[in-house]
Amino acid sequence: MINEERVKLMTRLAAYEEGEGKRNEAIGSYFRGDYLSLQIMKSIIYATISFGLILGLFVLYDSEFFVQEIYQIDLIQYAKNIIFYYIAFTAVYTVISYVVYAFRYRKAKKRLKVYFNNLKRLQVLYQRERKDKTQ
Questions:
Q1: Rounded-to-10 torsion of CA 82, 83, 87, 92
Q2: Tell me, what DSSP letter sits at residue 30?
Q3: Position 112 pLDDT exceeds 70
Q4: 54 part of a folded domain
């Protein structure tokens, strides 16, 4: 005889495994500090690339100004400003990344906990069924 509760539980587990379960297991395989460190390092690299692209586009957009005024611009002060903006941009990007990835990690851990509790429930249901068959 088919146990309806067990079938529902197995269906729920299979749907989770096919959907967000893969992503959550990938996240859950890390310790919190390792996961956040990896994601923050990626974010710093992406922020650097983004800032470089934005700076390059800005220079291309305003290239006429740079060609005409290159000898009158205080290049050291200009470089300091660029470095300041880079640090500010990267810091903001990193803080936002930290918050987002910490939230994702926490949610993934909660979902994995529910998943493993459901697996334990399924195991208990199988054990009960075996016990009932032997008696």
A1: 0
A2: S
A3: yes
A4: yes
Output the pTM of the full model.
0.81
E strand or H helix at 48: helix 32-61
CB 74 within 8 A of CB 32: no
Domain assignment of residue 78, yes or no = yes
- Alpha-carbon distance of 5 to 129, in angstroms, equals 12
Yes or no: say if 36 and 102 are a contact pair by the CB < 8 Å rule: yes
Tell me the per-residue pLDDT of 21-62, one tens digit each, with 9 for 90 and over: 999 999 999 999 999 999 999 999 999 999 999 999 998 998
Domain of residue 119: give its range.
32-134
At residue 113, the pLDDT reads: 96
Host H or E run for residue 106: helix 75-134
Does 75 fall in a domain? yes
Q: CA–CA distance from 124 to each of 8, 9, 68, 103 (Å)? A: 14, 12, 78, 32
How many domains is the chain partitioned into structurally? 1
Is 5 inside any structural domain? Answer: no
CA 1 from centroid of its chain's CA atoms: 44
